[in-house]
């Protein structure tokens, strides 16, 4: 039996289950509430409170925390889905260690691991990274409680493994949305394969019409992204975990597309529940933690990666260090001496051959004839150079077409509002300015701009916190009337200068 522990924004979820022969049986489920603010975006912000709750839970049930696997879900988790050739395990470990080097400035001390997921040709490599400081808080907490951790996985990966191992999702094109408090993780699948994910911070109050409209806007962004990929299968299904029936019904009324089917995430036949009191476990509410039982044979284990990260690197002995410089100097001077000696011998032999060749009368006659042809060739080359320079000038001008602008708009994912778009044709610089719901959304948007491949470089100046007034319109279905209210929200201004590639 395995015990999964997930720290959601509402509390600590604990599920005990047994998985074998492709089927999972839930044996027990517990939920230990936390006060608001104890957890924020997957990070433990009130360690003393969380430790107290876990201590009381362990005290009341001695066998609760055995064979423990932690699930963490946060926007701080770095994810990359890449196609790779067939590689050895050692080569794959080297690859994942370098995959996040281009985004290292956005993180501190990334601990990385990988697993395999279905790809368009064969299996893709899913690279996962999480800051050491975030992991350290969890590891230290369980160490103080004397609870042994077997492994640490991340929510996005557990969902991908569950979908790939559940035949009900085979070849399906759909969106899966997991709502945790006011955070939402959305994943897009095309014919059973993961192609895109997005995280959103929901601003409206749960259970309101404004909340339903906000979810509808997020779904529209997913649909626009799917259309932009020009895939054959249409996106006409979106399922939700973490909503109640009333919120789902309000969302159905808010969505304009009548062909879009909206459902609560169903409990698939490969999951059984053996808890006497069924009210202790509701699949749609415990969806994310339940998927943690569906590990890949090469499962993600950030705990093992964290312990490996902490191991000190072997240092060279002082005597060996002292010998390095003298040995390098000796090798350098010996190499230089041999090189110059051999060059000198070779040059002397070639000089004798050249003098004999020049003294030959036939060669002198050919030289005069060649000289005349060279003058003619120089004139032709000069004209060709002028034409090439003209072509280079034309090709060096960047092209800004509507397809690029549409792509920049489609990758906003509903979390970005652009307030300014200017383009300098002379310099080929596209200036973007706008605001995001969170500082992470702004940074992620800039990363997605880079991934389009349209630009040779992107200068991101960071974000600035400010408050703005936002008008929210609510509708009353009974009276067919609507009302508007203005609220103040916090947004993060940012700007980026994007250097278009020449001639593309």
In angstroms, what is the radius of gyration?
31 Å
Give the terminus-to-terminus CA distance.
57 Å
Q: Average pLDDT value?
A: 85
Main beta sheet: 6 strands, mixed
Task: Please identify the structural class as seen in this structure.
Answer: alpha/beta
Tally the helices: what do you get?
Answer: 12
Overall geometry comes to globular
Strand order of the largest sheet: 10-6-1-2-3-16
Helix content: 25-40%
The assembly state of the depicted protein chains is: single chain
List segments where confidence is low: pLDDT < 50 over at least 5 consecutive residues.
Answer: none
Total count of strands: 20
Residue share in β-strands: 25-35%
Features:
single chain, 504 residues, 5-stranded mixed β-sheet, 38% helix, globular
Structure in words:
By secondary structure, the chain is of the alpha/beta class. 38% of the residues lie in helices and 32% in strands. The protein is built from twelve helices and 20 strands. It has helices at residues 47-60, 89-98, 132-144, 155-164, 209-228, 245-254, 287-291, 302-310, 318-359, 361-395, 402-410, 439-451, and strands at residues 2-7, 11-20, 23-33, 39-40, 43-44, 68-72, 78-82, 110-118, 123-131, 149-154, 174-180, 183-190, 193-201, 237-241, 261-264, 271-273, 416-424, 429-436, 455-476, 481-500. The strands form five sheets. It has a six-stranded mixed beta sheet with strand order 10-6-1-2-3-16. Strands 13-12-11-14-15 form a five-stranded mixed beta sheet, with helices on both faces. Strand 12 and strand 13 form a beta hairpin. Helix 5 packs across helix 6 (245-254). The mean pLDDT is 85.
């Amino acid at each position: 039996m395995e015990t999964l522990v997930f720290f959601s924004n509402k509390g600590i979820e604990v599920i005990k289950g047994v998985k074998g022969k492709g089927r999972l049986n839930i044996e027990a489920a517990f939920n230990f509430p936390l006060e608001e603010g104890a957890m924020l975006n997957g990070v433990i912000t009130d360690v003393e409170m969380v430790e107290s709750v876990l201590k009381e839970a362990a005290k009341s049930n001695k066998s609760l925390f055995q064979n423990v696997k932690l699930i963490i879900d946060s926007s701080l988790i770095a994810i990359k889905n890449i196609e790779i050739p067939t590689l050895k395990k050692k080569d794959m470990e080297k690859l994942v260690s370098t995959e996040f080097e281009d985004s290292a400035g956005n993180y501190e001390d990334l601990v990385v691991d990988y697993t395999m997921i279905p790809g368009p040709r064969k299996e893709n490599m899913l690279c996962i990274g999480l800051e050491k400081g975030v992991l350290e808080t969890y590891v230290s907490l369980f160490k103080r409680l004397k609870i042994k951790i077997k492994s640490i996985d991340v929510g996005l990966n557990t969902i991908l493994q569950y979908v790939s191992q559940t035949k009900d999702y085979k070849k399906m094109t759909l969106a899966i949305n997991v709502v945790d408090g006011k955070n939402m993780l959305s994943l897009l699948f095309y014919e059973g394969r993961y192609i895109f994910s997005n995280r959103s911070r929901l601003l409206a109050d749960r259970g309101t019409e404004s909340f339903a409209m906000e979810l509808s806007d997020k779904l529209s962004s997913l649909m626009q992204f799917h259309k932009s990929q020009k895939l054959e299968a249409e996106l006409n299904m979106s399922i939700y975990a973490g909503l109640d029936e009333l919120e789902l019904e309000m969302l159905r009324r808010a969505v304009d597309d009548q062909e879009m089917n909206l459902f609560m995430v169903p409990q698939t036949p490969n999951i059984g529940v053996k808890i006497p009191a069924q009210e202790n476990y509701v699949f749609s509410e415990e969806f994310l933690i339940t998927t943690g039982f569906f590990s890949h044979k090469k499962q993600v284990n950030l705990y093992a990666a964290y312990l490996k990260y902490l191991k000190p690197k072997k240092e060279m002995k002082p005597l060996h260090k002292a010998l390095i410089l003298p040995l390098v100097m000796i090798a350098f001077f010996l190499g230089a001496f041999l090189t110059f000696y051999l060059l000198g011998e070779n040059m002397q032999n070639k000089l004798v051959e050249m003098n004999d060749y020049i003294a030959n009368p036939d060669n002198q006659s050919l030289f005069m004839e060649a000289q005349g042809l060279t003058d003619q060739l120089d004139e032709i080359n000069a004209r060709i150079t002028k034409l090439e320079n003209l072509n280079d000038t034309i090709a060096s001008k960047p092209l800004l077409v509507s397809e690029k602008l549409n792509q920049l708009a489609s990758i906003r994912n509903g979390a970005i509002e652009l307030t300014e778009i200017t383009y300098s044709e002379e310099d080929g610089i596209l200036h973007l300015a706008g605001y995001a719901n969170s500082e992470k959304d702004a940074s992620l948007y800039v990363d997605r701009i880079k991934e389009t491949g349209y630009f040779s470089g992107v200068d991101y100046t960071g974000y600035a916190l400010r408050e703005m007034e936002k008008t929210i319109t609510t509708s009353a279905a009974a009276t067919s009337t609507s009302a508007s209210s203005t609220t103040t929200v916090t947004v993060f201004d940012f700007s980026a200068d994007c250097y278009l590639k020449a001639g593309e």
